Amino acid sequence: MPSSLIPIPKPLQPQSSPYDLKERLDWGEPALTIVDVRDRQTFNQQHIMGAICMPMSDLVAAASQSLEADRDIYVYGATDEQTAEAALRLRQYGFMQVAELKGGLSAWKAIRGSVEGAA
């Protein structure tokens, strides 16, 4: 007999798909933070529901003031390259549980992930 009938999402991966994040959110995983590193105006137009805005220019300072170093962080930007750069900066500063959300907002919307904003 299986030890658990409840599926448990896989642990955070350095590169994650929107499905990985959606699975954790659908499961009710409260111990994660979604960080959008696009500029504030773009963030305000539309972003992943529950994401916080930390533009690249202020990323490390904002993260160090408001996030715990052992927190699971899903980061996304305007491009996968910007996402990778943001993840690298966070890791270099000591945030080790960082996942690059591949495809960003457009990939999230493609799987019908919840979004919010003025758009």
Automatic annotation (TrEMBL):
Residues 1-20 are annotated as: Disordered. SUPFAM superfamilies: Rhodanese/Cell cycle control phosphatase (SSF52821). PROSITE patterns: RHODANESE_3. Residues 28-117 form the Rhodanese domain. It comes from the Bacteria. This is Rhodanese-like domain-containing protein.
